[in-house]
Amino acid sequence: MKKTEAEWRKQLTSEQYSVTRKKGTEAPFSGELLNNKDKGVYTCVCCGEELFDSGQKFDSGSGWPSFTAPVKPGNVSQESDASHGMLRTEVLCGRCDAHLGHVFDDGPAPTGQRYCVNSLALKFKKEQS
Predict the structure, then answer these.
(1) For the domain that residue 58 is a member of, what is the CATH number?
(2) Is the whole model's pTM more than 0.90, yes or no?
(3) Which of 48, 83, 86, 42 is nearest to 65 (CA)?
């Protein structure tokens, strides 16, 4: 999915644009989805791709929503990130390349992964009861 910078700016808030298109980050413990406990699916704020299921969400204490795995492996892609003087693995939307956050190898079983994601990069679709 390709859009011009002008199209992204029109669609997203300035904060969402900064995080998803310019690889920014929100302040820890500030995201509206950090403490969300509802059942449902977290989607990309840019394109609507399903990224993470609420069943994979856990409290990592990091200050950002954390997940053990994506809904489907192809829905999230990874790239090396050497910014800020450290080597990390960046997590991107598999459809539109929106910056989501980073993945670390210090998560709980069964995956051992911690997908640390900005709330500003996500929308939440609550499961219908």
Answers:
(1) 2.170.150.20
(2) yes
(3) 42
